[in-house]
TrEMBL record:
<feature type="domain" description="HAMP">
    <location>
        <begin position="167"/>
        <end position="216"/>
    </location>
</feature>
<dbReference type="InterPro" id="IPR003661">
    <property type="entry name" value="HisK_dim/P_dom"/>
</dbReference>
<keyword id="KW-0808">Transferase</keyword>
<keyword id="KW-0597">Phosphoprotein</keyword>
<keyword id="KW-0472">Membrane</keyword>
<dbReference type="Pfam" id="PF02518">
    <property type="entry name" value="HATPase_c"/>
</dbReference>
<feature type="domain" description="Histidine kinase">
    <location>
        <begin position="224"/>
        <end position="416"/>
    </location>
</feature>
<keyword id="KW-0812">Transmembrane</keyword>
<keyword id="KW-0902">Two-component regulatory system</keyword>
<dbReference type="InterPro" id="IPR036890">
    <property type="entry name" value="HATPase_C_sf"/>
</dbReference>
<dbReference type="GO" id="GO:0016301">
    <property type="term" value="F:kinase activity"/>
</dbReference>
<dbReference type="InterPro" id="IPR004358">
    <property type="entry name" value="Sig_transdc_His_kin-like_C"/>
</dbReference>
<keyword id="KW-0418">Kinase</keyword>
<keyword id="KW-1133">Transmembrane helix</keyword>
<feature type="transmembrane region" description="Helical">
    <location>
        <begin position="15"/>
        <end position="36"/>
    </location>
</feature>
<dbReference type="Pfam" id="PF00512">
    <property type="entry name" value="HisKA"/>
</dbReference>
<dbReference type="InterPro" id="IPR036097">
    <property type="entry name" value="HisK_dim/P_sf"/>
</dbReference>
Amino acid sequence: MGILRDLLNWRSLRWKIAALVAVSCCAIALTVGVLVHRSTLARSMNDGRLKAVTQLSRDLQDHERDDAARPGPLSSDAVPEELLHRLRSPQGLKDGYATWYDGEAPGDHPSMWAARMYRGVPVAVEVDMTPDLLTRRALDRHMWKYSLVALAVVVPLSALAAELPNRRLRRVARTARRIAAGDLAARTAAGRGSDEIAEISATVDSMADSLLGRLLAEQRFTADVAHELRTPLMGLVTASELLPEAEATELVRDRVVVLRTLVENLLEISRLDAGVERAEVGPVPLADAIRESLARTGLRTRLTTDDVLPAVTDPRRLDRIVANLVANAHRHGRDPVEVEVAGTCVTVRDHGPGFPRELLTDGPQRFRTGASERGRGQGLGLTIALGQAHVIGASLSFANASDGGAVATLRLPAAG
C-alpha cells in the first residue's frame, strides 16, 4: 500500500523528473516540427517557382519555334490580379518573371503561377501544387505521430530511471527520521558514489556519528559525576546523623536526602543510557501491585480499577515508574491526583496546568521541567519512568486532559 501511495504521489521527485523530460521532449518536438515544416514549405515554394518558370520558358520557346505571330494560348485573361500586379512592379520580378502561389484555390488544389511580358502582352502558366501540399501534410502528420510515440516511450523510461535516485533519497529520509526518533545507530549505508545524493548520505551518517559521540560523552560525564559524588555524599549522610538534634540539623538532613536522591537518579539514568538494565518479567496482579506502590509513596492518591487483567512486567521497575509518575503529579500538578487501572493500562492524572508543549512534542528532558507553572525540579522523574518503561517493554505516553490537567498513560503487555 505504501509503495502504491509513493507511485501515485504526483509531488514526488520521480514525476517531477518525468514532467521535466516530457516538457523538454515537447519543446524539442515542437521546435523541430516548426523548423522542418518551414524548411519543407520553403523548398516546395522554390521548386514550384522553378517548375512554373521552366514551364513558361519552354512554352515560349515552343511558340517561337512555331513562328506564331502572337502568344496564342499562353496569353490568358484568367491571370490572377495579384500576379499581374507583381508583373507590373519591378520589385516583383526576378529575371523578368513574376511568380505567385495561389494557396486559396477551391477544392484544396493550390497552384503556382509564373508570368512575363512577351511582345507587350502578359503571358502566364499555372502549375498544380496539390502533390506538394499532400506531401507536406503527410510529413506533418508523421512528425506529430512519431513525436507522441517517442513521448509515450521516453516519459515512462525517465520515471523508471528517476526511481533509483528517488529510492536513495527515500532511504536517506528514513534514516534521518530514525535518527530524529533517537536511533543514533541508524546509517544510510550509501556505499560508494560521488554524486550529490552520496554527499547527502555521507553528511547524514557523519551527523549521526557526531550526535552519538556527544551523547556517549554526556552519558560518561553523568555517570562519572554521579560516581564521584557518591563517596562524599555517604560522608555527608553519616555526618548529618551525628549532628545534635536541632532545627538546623533537620534542614541539613533534608537537603542531604534531596542530594542523595539526585545522585541515585543520576546513577539510574546512566545505567539506562548505557543499556545495562535487564528486566525480570513475570505475571503480576496489576491492581494489587499498583495499590502497594501507591501505599509506599505515602502520597494521597485516588485509585480506581476497572476490569483489571494480569500484566507481564517487572514489579520492582513497575513500582519505580508508578512512584515517579505519582510524585511528579503531586509536585507539579494539583489535587486530586487520580490513578486508574483498566485492563493492563495505568493512567495517572492530576488537575494542574498540564504538561508543557515542549514535553508533549519532544518527550521528557533531564534537568528541564519545561514550564515555570509546573514548579521546580530536575526533570529526572519522567525521564527515569520513560527509560524503565522501555526496559520492561511497556509504552509510556503523555497528554493533557481536555478539561485541564496532565495525563500519563502506561500500557503494559498482558499475561497470556
